[in-house]
């Protein structure tokens, strides 16, 4: 019943020339809202730099394939003007999930370059990885995307701290994004309208790596190993690193190559990476499930932006509502709204599980079975706690009775 009232309200608002304006502040137009958005130079057309395009003898590339990257869910910058202008047709649930699967799109570009180690999307920064990428969504509609990207390594060195923007065109949204039951979405062959933005980030991250000499990059990899070792056993590895006047971690001493404690750390890291591979697959599945509704939202917002700007450029007249062209425009607007509500409901059902508790995970370690429960974030933290406890147990000094046995 509520759905019927919403549809009727939309049609009435359209007939009075006020559709999509009720949430906007007085004297604020869609054009004003767009003009007030952050002005970041779009990245334009970008070619991704790949391993095949690089000289095979580059030492930095050999070291670079050992640089594992973790991308954490983005945050969102609230923008009151944009929210007022587009609030009628932004799906809050989609905006929330967008922070979790935009990192997946960035990871795809980094993986495609074939110039890095493992690239994973994780619920929070992971001490076992060399680089952590964080992002903030500045603005996001079907028309444009602007983000701030920050990338730091295990030593605390900043590799990237930059704003990026890209602009979409109608041609970036094929007819399959109009979503009718006879024309379902083809996700396998869909190219994201803002793929150039992710390529630019990947290229810039590579440029930052190329700016480091091989010795510094090798030291960064050693620091990353010790940061994870210190996370498992703070007391044992506390003296291996120090913080300099710039706030960066530097090596003080390296454990011996045959140090049995270091070998145990390496073993724990391997087990941990098997687990976070599964976590990354979970984010990938989330994106694949939600992608149809997300693309619909982008296409819907692009249509609405163009329509609103066109309507403001041509003030409504009471003499035009009997015109067949006006009736056709109204029908198309209603049809878009109808399908948006259908897919908003479908999206909500698909996405609901991500916020709820996952099915308990059962993991076997050293002959013992450990159960994980709760959300993805909770299971991830619980897993790290189990590894710390297991490491402490395995490395505890042997008692006299143990030695006798």
Structural features:
single chain, 405 residues, six-stranded mixed β-sheet, 12 helices, 10 strands, 15% strand, disordered N terminus
Annotate the secondary structure layout.
Layout (H helix, E strand, L loop, with lengths): L1 H14 L14 H6 L23 H6 L4 E3 L3 E2 L3 H7 L5 H22 L5 E3 L9 E10 L3 E10 L4 E10 L27 H16 L3 H19 L1 H4 L3 E3 L5 E3 L8 H54 L10 H32 L2 E8 L2 E7 L1 H20 L4 H5 L1
Parallel strand pairs: 1-3, 1-4, 2-4
Antiparallel strand pairs: 4-5, 5-6, 7-8, 9-10
Helix pairs in contact: 1-10, 5-6, 5-9, 7-9, 9-10, 9-11
Please provide a written account of the structure.
This protein has 405 residues and is α/β, with parallel strands linked by helices. It has two domains: 38-288, no CATH class; 359-404, no CATH class. 51% of the residues lie in helices and 15% in strands. It is built from twelve helices and ten strands. It has helices at residues 2-15, 30-35, 59-64, 80-86, 92-113, 195-210, 214-232, 234-237, 260-313, 324-355, 376-395, 400-404, and strands at 69-71, 75-76, 119-121, 131-140, 144-153, 158-167, 241-243, 249-251, 358-365, 368-374. The strands form three sheets. Strands 1, 2, 3, 4, 5 and 6 form a six-stranded mixed β-sheet that branches. Strands 7-8 form a two-stranded antiparallel sheet. β4 and β5 form a beta hairpin. α5 (92-113) packs across α9 and α7 (214-232) packs across α9.
